[in-house]
Write a structure and sequence with these properties.
Among the domains are: 194 residues, Alpha-Beta Plaits; 379 residues, no CATH class. Helices cover 55% and strands 8% of the residues.
């Protein structure tokens, strides 16, 4: 890993690649394995459906659709796919990008014949699985229909047996033979189909429910209605029975009531087991309905209404023998369907297992080949040389490897014309590329979430590796809580390989896993700061003898003062934890420590801006922005930090003086310059007056120098007669083009200057705008002045607000310590009593309170407080520190890489 890819982004170059048409696919394949080039689109003006390789892309799109269908059927049937090595969308077919030439030579591209075989195999499996799946679904629908028909027969049998009584049989038999149409049924009531007991209890027709029907005893006598009709009280009534969705029963009832003008009676029985709607895949509740009405026309109308609402109408037999035959027939059909369904499911499972073993390889092959053709659609075609021309960004150090790898492809294919890789000059702003590994990737992601660094700008992610967990630890400092966080992060780091192979980790867990090394450093730094605070679960750490001695023989309740006998070896003396004035001391110490840490952090970040200005040779920014900003900040807040350290170093008790207030000193420094009521050191008044004068001078310096210098440079170039359009951008126009001090183009501008493929290849006309120089924006002094006024106001105000913002280090550290102390006192401290007071129950109370304390410690102090401290540390880096040097006007480098494609969770 080179320095340029860590401290600054990699040195990128724009390359043009000329490759013969017959080996273009293999060349792009090798570049995808290398993962070092970001192709530019040379066909921006061409519709996506009119590009050269749209047919190949459509064919692979269809294959991907077939693979998604096979995956869906596998999920429905519960067939699991073996997980790949990386656990990404395309499994174990992913290989790490390689820049080693020998390794690239061993990775042979997949031939078109092999890809055709994959496409053919997928199509055959998809067709076979689709046919079996459709057959299986049809059998399931048939099975469900038969089950509903059997439920209707059973429900109506119970209904008629429990709701009707019979006068007897005309021929005197036992009811096992068919009755003629004169069989008569009598109802126990003239106005409803109720039993005498139900009528006596006041039930009405709307009170009949499933528990009423099923709980009633079966009489076991009498025939069933014949031909879906009954003869009740001398009146022939038709019966329409079937099933319908429970939610639609009320609709059916209302429609039939209006359609039949109330000339009907309806019954309803719920089906306990929900059924699946095969069209939507959702479960639905259904019920059995029975409609009694007069006349064939009303029966037909009832049937039509029920079927229009998605109901299933079932013919009810008219006698016990016909009922038995119907039930036997339904059971036989159901058994046959279930037997065929089991065989179909078995054959489908065997087919899907064969698919599951090859699905990851198929998916990877299709995705890579599709990505290759998508990249080739960005290329331009040179008809004169019968070759494809590609342009893209590549790290300068990888150009040689790419050139050798493409030449090897031509040699293996026996092509006489080897691919040509040439570096071209360009006015375009290159993408920003920082090389990362599994340790630095999370820290880089923290910075990239705020903004992508401008090209060749110093990478804020490098110092964040130390400063981010350290700022967190100042707020979170506790040895015990840091140890819990460290152990959790260490488990994630040790099991990273196993966790990476898991396909579905959950969003929250995946965030913790991605930042496992950030969590590890946060825990380690918290242990360190907790050691300095002498804090372990809010309890003091007595590693060394205290350097404070209390007088002997003092009584309980008496206020005494300890005498300092020396200096504690490291960190805070643990005796402060038991002192009455511990909170006053901790507040004073941590507040001043926060100011010091904030000033050091911002001052360090300000030095990074100087490094950027020097690297980009921006002399006007060094003189006009850095120097006055540095002086302004250090004359006020740097002086404050020096007085804090000086006040700590003086023995005010030995001098028998009251330590002066630094807050009052800073206020009077502006309100009463030169006047000091309580001197901190001799000559304090003149020193403060001089510092204040320098700070005030820096404000107009910061405001006026850069605009006036740019206008002077512009006037000088105009006086010399130079045309900025012909000679290229001058310092004035380039620096004044935006608020950025050293960035020339934004990503959108760099993309908009690529020419269309209509340009032909010639020494004077490239396939892109790499050699063209668009005119810089016109010099506008008013815009520059307004931008500088805004910058000056923001900088001066931010020096105050950002310094105050670092006081959150003190506030959160104090809150964390106090909350931890309260939790200890409210739980474990109450459990530690003498055994003689509570006996055996005291042991149980200790265990229970320890469990409560531990759960609350992990949930509240580690997870919730840890998240809060992490977000505050994030804010201090994004706003307070990075605002001093970070431009963030770049765009991310996204190379064409098979590894990134196959390990991505997106299916795009």
């Amino acid at each position: 890993m080179t320095e340029e890819a860590i401290f600054r982004s990699a040195n990128m170059v724009l390359v043009q690649v000329y490759m013969a048409s017959e080996i273009a696919r293999d060349c792009v394949w090798v570049l995808g394995e290398m993962g070092s080039i970001e192709f530019l689109d040379l066909n921006e003006g061409v519709n996506s459906f009119q590009r050269a390789f749209v047919e190949e892309t459509r064919r692979l799109d269809n294959t991907e659709r077939q693979l998604r269908y096979l995956e869906g059927v596998m999920r429905e049937q519960g067939v699991e796919e073996p997980q790949g090595a990386y656990g990404g969308a395309y499994g174990g077919a992913a290989r790490q990008p390689s820049r080693d030439l020998e390794e690239l030579m061993r990775r042979t591209p997949q031939t078109t014949s092999e890809m055709d075989a994959v496409v053919k195999a997928v199509a055959e499996y998809e067709q076979g699985v689709r046919e079996m799946a459709e057959t299986y679904r049809g059998l399931e629908k048939r099975q469900q229909g038969l089950q509903e028909e059997r439920s209707v027969l059973e429900g109506t049998r119970k209904y008629f047996e429990t709701r009707m009584s019979y006068d007897g049989y005309r021929d005197g038999d036992d009811g096992s033979s068919d009755r003629n149409s004169t069989d008569r049924f009598t109802i126990s009531s003239n106005d409803s189909l109720l039993t005498q007991e139900e009528r006596a209890e006041g039930f009405g027709p709307d009170d009949v429910g499933l528990h009423d029907l099923e709980a009633a005893p079966s009489t076991g006598a009498g025939p069933m209605p014949r031909e879906s009709s009954v003869n009740i009280l001398g009146t022939a009534m038709g019966v329409v029975c079937g099933t319908i969705e429970t939610d639609k029963f009320a609709i059916l009832e209302r429609i039939l009531w209006r359609t039949l003008r109330g000339n009907l009676y309806m019954a309803r029985v719920e089906i306990e087991t929900p059924v699946v709607d095969f069209d939507t895949g959702d479960e639905q509740r259904r019920c059995i309905f029975a409609v009694f009405t007069h006349g064939g026309g009303l029966v037909a109308r009832s049937r039509a209404v029920a079927e229009s609402l998605g109901g299933r109408v079932v013919e009810v037999p008219g006698s016990h023998r016909a009922y038995a035959v119907a039930v036997h027939g339904v059971n036989g059909k159901l058994a046959d369907v279930q037997r065929v369904l089991a065989g179909t499911a078995e054959r489908l499972a065997v087919e899907l297992k064969e698919v599951a073993g090859q699905l990851a390889d198929w998916r990877a092959a299709v995705a890579r080949d599709k990505a290759v053709y998508a990249a080739m659609n960005r290329f331009d075609y040179d008809p004169a040389r019968r070759c494809l021309v590609a342009e893209g960004w590549m790290p300068r150090g990888d150009v040689g490897t790419a050139r050798a790898a493409l030449v090897d492809v031509a040699d293996r294919r026996g092509v006489d014309i080897a691919p040509v890789v040439s570096v071209v000059d360009s006015h375009l702003t290159p993408p920003t590329f920082f090389r990362t590994n599994k340790f630095t990737a999370a820290f880089q992601a923290i910075v990239d979430a705020y903004g992508i660094a401008s090209y060749r700008e110093i990478n804020p992610g490098l110092p964040a590796i130390v400063t981010f967990p350290f700022m967190f630890a100042i707020m979170f400092g506790d040895m015990g809580h840091g140890l819990i966080l460290t152990l959790a992060a260490a488990c994630l780091c040790l099991a990273e390989s196993a966790i990476a192979r898991q396909p579905h980790r959950g969003e929250i867990f995946d965030m913790a896993y991605s930042g496992r090394y950030v969590l590890l450093l946060m825990g380690l730094f918290s242990i360190f700061t907790g050691f300095l605070y002498s804090d372990l679960f809010s309890r003091p750490v007595t590693l060394f003898a205290s350097r404070w001695a209390y007088p002997a023989g003092f009584k309980e309740g008496q206020t005494v003062s300890a005498t300092q006998t020396g200096v504690y070896p490291i960190g805070l003396d643990w005796a402060w934890h038991s002192a009455e004035n511990t909170l006053l001391f901790a507040n004073s110490y941590k507040m001043k420590l926060s100011i010091l840490m904030g000033f050091i952090h911002m001052s360090y970040s300000l030095q990074l801006s100087l490094a950027n200005f020097r690297f980009f040779k921006s002399r006007v920014d060094i003189i006009g922005n850095y120097i006055p900003g540095f002086l302004f900040m250090h004359c006020i807040f740097g002086y404050l930090c020096l007085t804090i350290v000086y006040k700590w170093c003086v023995d005010w008790i030995g001098l028998k003086r009251v330590a002066p207030s630094l807050l009052n000193m800073l206020i009077n420094m502006f309100l009463a310059p030169g006047t000091v009521d309580h001197k901190l050191y001799p000559g304090q008044g003149p020193v403060q007056l001089a510092l204040l004068a320098v700070a005030l001078v820096c404000v107009p310096w910061l405001l006026l120098y850069k605009p006036l210098a740019l206008r002077r440079a512009h006037n000088h170039s105009v006086a010399l007669g130079y045309s900025e359009v012909l000679s290229g951008p001058s310092e004035a126009s380039s620096l004044a083009s935006s608020h950025s001090h050293y960035s020339s183009l934004r990503p959108s501008e760099s993309e908009s200057h690529v020419l269309s493929p209509s340009n032909s290849l010639s020494p004077s006309n490239s396939h892109s705008s790499s050699f063209s120089h668009p005119p810089p924006p016109p010099f506008n002094f008013a815009d520059i002045m307004v931008n500088q006024v805004i910058y000056t106001i923001e900088f001066c105000l931010n020096c105050v607000s950002h310094t105050a913002s670092y006081l959150r280090l003190w506030a959160l550290s104090l809150a964390h310590n106090q909350l931890s102390s309260v939790l200890w006192n409210m739980t474990l401290r109450n459990s530690f009593v003498a055994y003689s007071e509570r006996g055996f129950w005291g042991c149980i109370i200790v265990v229970l309170l320890f469990a409560l304390w531990f759960v609350l410690t992990v949930a509240v102090l580690v997870c919730m407080e840890g998240t809060s401290a992490m977000l505050h540390s994030l804010r201090l880096h994004w706003v307070e520190a990075m605002s001093k040097h970070f431009q963030g006007e770049g765009y991310k480098y996204t190379p064409f890489s098979f590894y990134h494609l196959l390990t991505s969770d997106d299916d795009s």
